[in-house]
Amino acid sequence: MNGPVVHEPSTPASWRVALPHTAAAVPVARALVRRALAEQEHTADCDTAELLTAELVANAVEHTTGRTPIELVVELLPTGCRVEVHDPDPDPPGDLVRPVVEQPDPWQEHGRGLLLIRALSSSCGHRPTASGKAVWFRLPVAPVTPVRQRPGRSPSGR
Q1: Which residues of 135-148 are buried (b: 16+ CB within 10 A; e: fewer)?
Q2: Cα 156 to Cα 105: distance, rounded to the nearest angstrom
Q3: Which residues make Cβ contacts (< 8 Å) with residue 152, sequence separation at least 6?
Q4: What is the pTM of this model?
Q5: Mean pLDDT: which of 34-43, 96-105, 130-139 is highest?
């Protein structure tokens, strides 16, 4: 076998969940992404998917007003995963697709979420929706490294 093995889901799978417009939505969204990737045995980087999902949901909660639920959409495709967060605010997110003019203040708690999304995703963006906007990111599938046995050892390691 030449090169890394890539596990590709045979069919796309997707989830769409309404989340409360509160900070409680963040851990729920992380758990949903983690569970979706695990159940489908998808090889997109789960830790990165969770982190970036948390950033999108936290931004939607913090930067939009009202009680309208936000919506999380997770799509697992043969080429990777796509996560979208829908919120009621039609204004585009700050610096998601614009070049960074100045680095965030290292002493501030806020200001790095969109930078993380841009840096760690394979692509990201936003689009208008009928009720506001959707902000999204994509992660590619990751190669699966096969476990190699050492000669003369059984699979149990004895």
Answers
A1: bbbbbebbeeeeee
A2: 50
A3: none
A4: 0.77
A5: 130-139
Instruction: Kindly state the tokens that stand for 53.
Output: 């999902």
- Give pLDDT tens digits for 10-55: 567 899 999 999 999 999 999 999 999 988 888 889 999 999 999 9
Sign of the alpha-carbon torsion through 51, 53, 58, 63:
positive
Q: Are strands 13-19 and 70-77 parallel, antiparallel or unpaired?
A: antiparallel
* Bridge partner residues of 84 (DSSP): 73, 136
Which ranges constitute the DSSP H helices of 2-155? 25-39, 46-63, 113-120
**68 token code pair:** 């309208």
What is the biggest distance separating any 2 CA atoms in the chain, rounded to whole angstroms?
A: 64
Residue 89's alpha-carbon distances to 16, 21, 98, in angstroms, are: 19, 12, 19
Separation CA 43–CA 116 (nearest Å): 20
Q: Please give the Cα distance from 72 to 15 (Å, whole number).
A: 8
Question: Could you tell me the two tokens for 158?
Answer: 């004895």
Among candidate residues 15, 60, 19, 55, the one with its CA nearest the CA of residue 39: 15
Nearest 10 degrees: Cα torsion 20, 24, 26, 32? -70
Q: What letter represents residue 6's amino acid?
A: V
CA–CA gap between residue 33 and residue 1 (Å, rounded): 31
